[in-house]
Amino acid sequence: MKKILITVAILLGFGQILFAQSKFSFERYHKPHELSAWISNLSNTHAEFSRIHKIGSSYSGIPVNLIEIGSEVKSHEKSHPAVFVAANFEGTRPLASEGALYLAGKILENPELYKNITWYILPVGNPEGAGHFFNSLKQDDGQNTRPFNDDMDDAIDEDPNEDLNGDGFITQMRVKDPSGNLLPDTADARKLRRPDLTKGERGLYKVYSEGIDNDNDGKYNEDGIGGTNNGVSFPHLFKYHGTNSGLWSGQEDEVYGVLKFMTDHQEVAMVMYYGSTNFCLMPPRGGRKGGNTSKSIKVPRRYATMIGADPNKSYTMSAVIEMMKAVMPPGVTVDESTVAGMLGLGAAVNPLPDDLKFYKSFSDKYKKYLKKKGFDEKRLDPLPAKDGSFELWCYYHLGLPVFSMDFWGLKEKSLKAEKAVGTEGKSDGERKKAEESAGLKAQPSGGMTQGNKGSTGGSKKVDKEKVFLQYSDSVLGGKGFVNWTAFDHPQLGLVEIGGVVPYADQTPLENQIDSLLSVQVPWVFELLKEIPKLSVETTKIKDLGENIFQLEVWIRNDGGLPFPTSMGKRNRTPVPAVLIIEGEDLEFLSGRYRSLLTGLDAGKNIKFKWLIKAPESKELKLTVKAMNAHGDVSTIKLGGK
Amino acid sequence: MKAKRYLQALYLSCMLCMASLFSMNSLAQKIEVPLRFDHYYTYDQVNEALRALNKAYPKMTHLDLVGHSDEGREIWSITVNNPKTGLELSKPGLYLDGNIHGNEIQAGEVALYYLNYILTNYEKNPRVTEMLDRTVTYCVPSVNVDGRYHFFHEINVISNTRGLRIAKDDDKDGLVDEDPMDDLDGDGNITRMRKKVPFGDYRLDPNDSRIMIRVAEDEIGDYTLLGSEGIDNDNDGRINEDGVGYIDPNRNWGFNWQPNYVEGGAGSYPLEGAGLKDLAQYLLDRPNILMAWAFHNSGGMFLRGPTSKLAKEYDRRDTKVYDYLGAHAEKMVPGYKYMISWKDLYTTWGDFGDYTDNVIGAFTLVGELFQSNTETYRKETAKATPRDQRDQERMDFNDYLALGQMFVDWKPYKHPVYGDIEIGGWTKFTSRLPQPFMLMDLVHRNAMAVFHTVDQLPDIKIELMSKEEVEKDLYKIRIRLVNKKGISSNSYQSVRDKIHPQDQLILSGKKIKVLTGGRLTDEYNDLVSYKEHRPEIQFFYIPGFSHVEYQFLVKGKGKIKVEYKSLKARNKTIEVN
Q: pLDDT tens digit string along A112-136?
């Protein structure tokens, strides 16, 4: 048994193969320090076009670096838009980091890819968590080493898991127990399921994670080593008082560093994240209750009197905006943010409908792209983004279009999705109710059905474990699962130890790395073309005599993405574009030297108008300054002087 | 026109010496203990005062550098502890700060006064002595040191040194801090601009043309107010729309933080701001802090959380403590109201109090100092002046009690955008700040409100209720823990949300084994809720003015050590023979 498991370990990349500095090959998974060394190596060999930024240090002091690639690496001020790529904040996704390295290599091979785009690539967002994958004892755990008293008792990190059967994996223990709530599945006895009480079935087993109760408090493995998981420690929907999110968002230095870096680099126009989600296939989910995207708003009494609302009634956002506008002095902007801020509605928690449009359209394009590459085998849905994740923060707080990739999912192959409840065609609310009444735990982020026909989307229950066991049997020769084997536990008596081998259900075999990345990574080069591109479409000049000119300019967004996203308009975080008109001795009779362009949807244009007195100028220079949307320069001739 | 003409000359002459009256010239006045409270302390003077206190009481105090501000200024704390009565971390802690809003300067004076009072009265006043021997005080008189510095040393208005010195694009035009207010008339004050117009919303008070009266709905005025002194620096058609900052240091803490479009004062991410981040760590390093006070101005309030409706009302077990402390504070400082932050005032996110409540596990009160209606000029002080006479009363207060220092009279000015205007109005040392002569009363009363809460930090007594031999070498032992003070040994919230480990009662001994143990719920009927695992260690907290009782069955002979361990209250040990 042990021998077989070791073989699996090697197959999965646990082998300690020496790292060759001179060449980076995608035949195995690399340790965080190898990845870090390799980006430094890349930067050294391409010093003209790249540099290393230190983002911060992990709790135990591991430096966290990113590589910048572009034609403007020497200057802090950027004129080109940037793509920020990060990987593996979860710490449990080694493939993601390989993807980031693969991307960096591909970019440096082709100067066209960084001529007008700056890249920031952070391959290891959670070095301490990522290191666990390479430990001789495998445990699916992305926490760092910061001591944390999970159970708030008299000791810290005192009750971790133990590898009781010595197979090198932390799996599970099942124990016969009168209060047991699981029983072996008749179809596959390896699997445990809940009993159907209506059929007179009874639970048989209680399940624990593998280990002993080190502190004799009746709880097993409740206070392991560490710590914070960077994958859930970003500000959007950050979980306070969580056992692995940290005390506040950004408590970990490297997370704080990312928050700061993104704030300081407003040229970032797009984010690509490699981890456990896949927004390229499946947009961020909606359906969450509350927040300022709420459809029914109650106005508290003190504001109700002020704006003439009924505190007992519910209003739509636009109705509240109208009421508020009526009482505000002219010139004061009243928008959704104003209302949300004043009424204390909190942040938006669902993707905005206009943003879902581009997500859907890009997802359709991506599926076609995959099909063309023969890569369209049906797979399990990617995981929904976690509260406090990096990708949600980028979208909700920075207002950036964020795409993510998990690169690999279990194939549905012979799978028949089991319909749990007949809820298709129902509204979100109805579906949720139906799910709840059917005893399904409502997904905290609800279901996103748009653009995901045939996927789970919350309406079908896919037996992930069943799919995994099929994969384990057919691809891993059954070695992805430790069969339940009796063990004499010092506290629980006779138990059986078994279960899914850590990482096996989310990490493909090493021989897959190259082929997975070579197909999926280049998609970002297609997405690049969608970055908003603001350019001067037409200019019209009309000589009104006496050196007075009427100037009309149409600016167009040639990108496939709106400038900025709908969420970006809502949170007003993306930096606006600016139109600047220069010439000798200009006088602006109407309009200004500097005009703001705060929003322009994909494929749309917008007109600006000036009345200029230009006695000395023969031509004007019009600059569209937009570090996050390319920008443009145009010269306008003034008459035939 | 009252004594206006004569007064006009007076306050013109006073204008130049205004700053020096409010902050005594540090060269002329050496700062010594006892500290004086007839003036405001500049940033440097606050630090000098801390050094003076430390020099006068070197054994009872020490200074620590909390960190640095965004402009690199040092943020200092002082710790007051009697080392003879125990280590700092062993005692229940008070954290006291002020001036997180840079312009709310008298908050710093309250902190300095408190320090000065307890130190100078130690071993003189028995209650001060008792309190100081049993608790530890951590104090940062000025948190927003950049704000405080600029309040004194920069031309400004009452509120524009409130935030952190981190440049932000307030008007979202791609430029940062490009259109601040300007001292157009060069008088050293930023006041207001008014203009005579055909269709105005104001008219001048016929009795005192310095006062502007808003016209009634059916009236047309002849004046309008044009905001604070300034020009359109960036030529965008708006005036003063992007000044210094703005991040509100009291909206950017790491708990219940919301982004800027939800909470207007928030920075780009939690704890953006070097000093805030340093202070967050400073507090984490002192887990014994159980009571926190943060002073602000103004309005006369003692605020407790929660700070937003979404955070839900505190548990009754905690509001009991707050209500007790709040009720006393209200009486100690007449006119001040004890309130719930979100409900009685407004919602805030990322509030400092959220952090101390929810991360440190401290009961937190925020003092909003000063009520402008105490600037009185009237016979009958018990009755409030009617609203429509308040402006006149305030102007009289300025004329007769502040000798014109508070107000700059309107003077004509040629504005590049508005043309002929007048500039004038209240100076920065008004509105939210008491005149120095009123400072003593303000700082003393508020410092005593703080004192009462420190006095009520838990004082736990451990006692053996009974020891009964049930059979040979089997003993039933009952232990009682009494809290003689009003503040519970942990907040209930910290127990519920697992903010930190609870109090512990631990039985140990060489020759004994604890067979069972648990909370004694009824000593007469011998009702015990036994703890299944590890009976020798019990977890709990002790409410204020209350007690808890535990019962153990112990096998064996010999001494039993009974230890009470608490992160917040003092550890206590007894031996049972």
A: 999 999 999 999 999 999 999 999 9
Both structure tokens of A493: 């008596």
Q: Which CATH architecture has domain A534-637?
A: Sandwich (2.60)
Instruction: Kindly report the nearest CA distance between residue B4 and chain A, in angstroms.
Output: 35
| Model pLDDT for residues A568-587, shown as the tens digit of each residue | 998 999 999 999 999 999 99
Test A571 with B264 for CB contact under 8 angstroms: no
Distances (CA, A) of A339 to A112, A151, A164, A346, A395: 45, 40, 57, 10, 21
Find out whether A428 and A287 touch, Cβ atoms under 8 Å: yes
Nearest beta carbon to residue B270 from set A217, A248, A575? A248
Domain borders along chain A are 2-135+230-282+381-409+509-528, 297-343, 534-637
**pLDDT for residue A332 is more than 80:** no
Q: Do B259 and A235 touch (CB under 8 A)?
A: yes
Domain A2-135+230-282+381-409+509-528 has CATH 3.40.630.10: yes
How many other C-beta atoms lie within 10 A of the C-beta of residue A187? 11
Burial call B373-409: b when 16+ CB within 10 Å, e when fewer: ebbebeeeeeeebeeeeebbbbbbbbbeebebbbbbb
- Chosen CATH of B31-154+246-370+434-455 out of 3.30.750.24, 3.40.630.10, 3.40.50.300, 1.10.1040.10: 3.40.630.10
Of B172, B269, B499, the CB nearest to A259: B269
* For A292, nearest residue in chain B (alpha carbons): B262
Q: Report how many Cβ contacts below 8 Å link chain A to chain B.
A: 122
Cβ-based neighbours of A295, under 8 Å, separated by 6 or more: A316, A317
Which chain B residues contact residue A627 at CB under 8 A?
Answer: none
Given the cut 0.90, state whether the ipTM is greater than it: yes
Q: Which two tokens stand for residue A16?
A: 């300690």
Cβ distance of A341 and B264 shorter than 8 Å: yes
pLDDT digits (tens, 9 = 90+) for B251-302: 999 999 999 988 989 999 999 999 999 999 999 999 999 999 999 999 999 9
Distances (CA, A) of A473 to A481, A483, B153: 9, 12, 75
Query: Taking the domains of chain B in order of start, what are their residue ranges?
Result: 31-154+246-370+434-455, 460-576
CB contact under 8 A, A572 and B347: no
User: Are the Cβ atoms of B261 and A572 closer than 8 angstroms?
Assistant: yes
The fold for domain B460-576 equals Immunoglobulin-like (2.60.40)
Contact with chain A for residue B312, Cβ under 8 A: no
Q: Which residue of B has its CA nearest to A267?
A: B174
